[in-house]
Write a structure and sequence with these properties.
With 247 residues, the chain is an alpha/beta fold. The chain folds into two domains: 121 residues, 3-Layer(aba) Sandwich (Rossmann fold), CATH 3.40.50.720; 108 residues, Glycogen Phosphorylase B (Rossmann fold, 3-Layer(aba) Sandwich). It contains seven helices and twelve strands. The strands form two sheets. The protein has a six-stranded parallel beta sheet with strand order 3-2-1-4-5-12, with helices on both faces. A six-stranded parallel beta sheet has the order 6-11-10-7-8-9. Helix 2 crosses helix 3 and helix 5 crosses helix 6. It starts with a strand and ends in a 7-residue tail after the last helix. The relative contact order is 0.17.
Amino acid sequence: MPARILILGGTTEARDLAACLVRAGHHVVTSLAGVSTAPRLPAGEVRMGGFGGASGLASYLAAKNFDWLIDATHPFAAQISAHAQVAAGRTEVALVRLERPPWEPEADDRWIPVADMAAAVATVPEGATAFLTIGRKEVGAFARRSDIGVVARMIEAPAEALPGNWRLVLVRPPFSVDEEMALMRAEGVNLLVTKNAGGEGTAKLEAARALRLPVVMIERPVKPQVRTLTSVEGALELIGGQNGWPR
């Protein structure tokens, strides 16, 4: 029988999963945070905006009689993942997280692992020209570092004003390795700062490796322990065998 599925989305995996589930005849609602002005919309029904915390999410799950809650948010979206665990527990809706594996350093990489954004800000050495690929929500943390140069790339400009000497690059991925190397060379970048998001966007890491640049790698936040799958195929197989799910 078709299942009622709520996907907490915003990632490529979430869109791919929604498309497959809709084609299979399931009723799919994807919830997007609404922080992007022109998001890529998935198949099925789309809900925009927050829920009002774990209680609001639980109320929505119960009111809409969902069978599944799929947390396919960004690996760094720790708050909504915590809310998902609480809401699923209150409503007894089956919860699974779909999360891509993290990147792993290769032999020639020069990674500097750090625990969080504050540590990343403190790690960038004086006089460096840092290439920030951390999204628009947290770039402001680097604004107090007047002793460094910054090239910040994101899809949309941040709400807050950035220092006048920063170079802001507004563009949507994907990027090739050659494009990344050309940008790093043209801007005099000597350090990459990025989050360990995982996935296919490795061109910047390959470019940094080829140019022998250090990478300040921000590790993923700790999330609640829930059933976690790393592929859309795994999620489809699990939902297809939903009668065996421990409720």
